[in-house]
Amino acid sequence: MRTATYFFIFLNLSLAVFEEPAVYPLPFLVTSLVEVLCLLVFFGRLTHFAKVTHRSVFWKDTKNICIMAAVLLSLTDLAIYGVLRIYNVKSIRWSRIVRPIFLINFAESRQIRRAFRSIRNTLPEITYVFLLFMFSLLMFSLMALKLFGERNLQTAEGLPYFRNYLEIVFDLYVLVTTANSPDVMMPAFDFSSWYALFFIAFVIINTYIFMSLFLAVVYNNYKKHLKVIFEGTNY
């Protein structure tokens, strides 16, 4: 039963490789039949569990409710998508995001569920660091708008440079990863080399300080919750 459950969970998750838009596209009828088969197996597994479990215990278990809801949502979305496809109406499979629920909530996935709980318990404790980082990003974006917005600078592609606040926030957010460095600063640097100080300060504060602090908080809190799990407290 455990091997069969893992196999069909893996098969269900693998459908993303073959469904449109896909790496290796297969006909919709093939992928839909495979998905229906997986959902029937999941529903049968849930029914089997309900037969050997007291009714009050079964319905109080959140994992069972999540699996049942995921099955119903997936079937509903598949039916709607199929009908719209018959009438050549373009739509998306929004239920794909619920597929990991099967991986997490079956009884056999206890270790994955523990890791997920550790991540979930860690998130509230890193919220303050994340909010500080976002505040710094928004303030630097506002400074960039005031510094460069009225100088009619252009990028190498001839597009306006740092004139839209939301685009500035996105560009500087990407700069935290250094993915667009130094391209994002070159129009300002070509105008005046002194503007490099702005980007140097931004990288030092947000990439080297905030990202290191963020990583330290995540690591320490995740390790703390993982220790609680192995000690068996409240789990």
Automatic annotation (TrEMBL):
Keyword Transport applies: no
Subcellular location: Membrane
Keywords in alphabetical order: Membrane, Signal, Transmembrane, Transmembrane helix
Keyword Glycosyltransferase in record: no
Entry superkingdom: Eukaryota
Pfam family, one: Ion_trans
Entry protein name: TPC2 protein
Species in which this protein is naturally found: Semnornis frantzii
